[in-house]
Design goal:
Blueprint (H helix, E strand, L loop, with lengths): L1 H34 L11 H17 L1
């Protein structure tokens, strides 16, 4: 039982940290863009949208 709880906790923390890293990287890129005085700095798409698109690409490669 303890092992199962530990595994579930690890998986939840891993998923949360991936999203946090994704957000942090894109926010840093946006801040650097704004520091350069550009007005066309793109906003990052949501992590969930990114994740879904990534999974679609992976699945399409498995078909070939």
């Amino acid at each position: 039982m303890k092992t199962l709880l530990l595994i579930i906790t690890f998986l939840i923390l891993t998923a949360c940290s991936q999203q946090a890293v994704y957000t942090m990287i894109h926010e840093r890129e946006r801040q650097e863009c704004l520091k350069q005085g550009r007005s066309d700095c793109p906003r990052a798409e949501s992590y969930n949208k990114y994740k879904n698109q990534r999974e679609e690409v992976i699945e399409s490669r498995e078909v070939y």
